[in-house]
Specification:
Blueprint: H1 2-13, E1 37-41, H2 46-54, E2 60-67, E3 70-77, E4 92-97, H3 98-107, E5 111-115, H4 125-135, H5 163-176, H6 182-193, H7 200-210, H8 214-217, E6 228-230, E7 233-235, H9 240-250
Antiparallel strand pairs: 1-2, 1-5, 2-3, 3-4, 6-7
């Protein structure tokens, strides 16, 4: 599996992943600070699809926070359907103590980089941890995953992929395979159209009647005010990096940006 995924990334992104020798680390986790960002990459196939689709060199993002003298890692997660699971239930927006989190990372052979914010930023992480308590337990943000990286008509798609092909695939999944795309796609389209259709076909008919281009609709930015419904629960929808950025924003990092 590792070799196939290294070959995939080299072919699709011209990115060569080199295996380094592993030495017993003398790293002291107490050097980690609240607000340090953790970038993770695992050769499991899923991370490589995320890398290829978004142009990133990583597949997962988390953030560190010291709480009552204990180091925790906060993140938005879900159980993987293949490979060795990295996380134990419950899933969604969770936090784990460093030892448990790091042992899981080692068990599933994930490489991590720890990125530190510039000391010039004066942040209030008390507000961030209050924010975490409000959103903990929310499911992983499948509802708006794809809308986090499509913001141009043509330039955000990997390879020869485009919005026309995506249109065909969505219809095929729903109409031929009889599988719903409501959770991962249609809710986001409804937010952008101010509609509430369950079926992608009805959304497409509405777009045609309103003369709205599918390719243009996809580029409408996600609004932080939008809530999504999952299993009869309504709330925000955060993928891993969006959760991390919101955690930092609550601390005051992006005060100059509108919500």
């Amino acid at each position: 599996m590792y070799e196939y995924n290294k070959e995939f990334i080299k072919e699709k992104m011209n990115l060569e992943i080199i295996e380094n020798k592993i030495y017993e680390s003398k790293f002291n986790y107490k050097e980690i600070r609240t607000g340090d960002i953790i970038l993770a990459n695992r050769l499991d196939g899923l991370d490589q699809l995320i890398m290829w689709g978004t142009g990133s060199h990583i597949g997962h993002t988390a953030i560190a926070s010291w709480i009552n003298g204990e180091l925790y890692i906060l993140e938005s997660t879900d159980r993987l359907s293949f490979g060795v699971p990295c996380w134990d239930p419950p899933y969604g927006i969770i936090r784990n103590k460093w030892d448990k989190w790091f042992n899981n990372i080692k068990r599933c052979n994930t490489s991590i980089s720890i990125i530190r914010l510039n000391n010039k930023f004066k942040l209030n992480f008390t507000k961030s941890n209050i924010f975490y308590e409000k959103v903990k337990g929310l499911p992983y943000g499948y509802n708006n995953f794809i809308y986090g990286w499509i913001d141009t008509i043509k330039n955000n798609y990997p390879g020869n992929f485009n919005s026309n092909l995506l249109y065909v695939i969505l219809n095929f999944i729903e109409n031929k395979l009889n599988l719903s795309v409501y959770k991962i796609f249609s809710q986001g389209l409804n937010k952008r159209l101010n509609t509430n259709f369950k079926k992608i076909k009805k959304i497409m008919i509405h777009m045609l009647n309103k003369k709205i281009r599918f390719s243009k609709l996809l580029t409408i930015s996600e609004s932080d005010k939008w809530n999504y419904t999952n299993n009869n629960n309504t709330g925000k929808s955060f993928v891993c990096d969006v959760f991390v950025l919101n955690f930092l924003r609550e601390a005051g990092l992006f005060n100059n940006l509108n919500r």
